[in-house]
Amino acid sequence: MSNVSFTYHIIWRTKKSENTINEVHERDLYAYIHGICKAKKCTLYRINSMPDHMHLCLEISPTIAISDFVKLIKQESSKWMKQHKDWFPKFNSWGNGYAGFSYSKKERDKIIAYVKHQKEHHHKKSFQEELEELVKEFGIDAQYFISKD
Fold first, then answer.
1. Structural contact between residues 92 and 2, judged by C-beta atoms closer than 8 angstroms
2. By three-state DSSP, how is residue 24 classified?
3. Which residues, 6+ apart, have CB-to-CB distance to 23 below 8 Å?
4. Cα separations (Å) of 51 from 15, 64, 92, 139, 141?
5. pLDDT score recorded for residue 119
6. Count of alpha carbons within 13 angstroms of residue 27, beta-carbon side
């Protein structure tokens, strides 16, 4: 039997970074995404959003690739949000790509707190600044993700 533990911080944005995640119904969206995570045997530690992007802190089951998991979450949540157009009237789709960062179990509480406090965090930093800091910290090129598709 295999045993793995990877804590991921996954971020994706709305198409053209438009403000389409309605704060009044964001918790309904979180509950829907949580259901997908449970169905795929993933552990969602924390979810939060801003009007133009999502943050998840979770462990993904070793039976599913991170790219397949994010694709599934984005596809299914997009369909669900379109079915609830009255709750998310400006939502058209998610943007291309995502950013994913892995952390050790020791760092998990820090990432959970970071995701939990996104709304306060963004009073000080824009999404662009936040992503650029993470990209720099991890030494990756995220121009594709940063672009305004």
1. no
2. helix
3. 51
4. 11, 28, 13, 27, 24
5. 81
6. 1
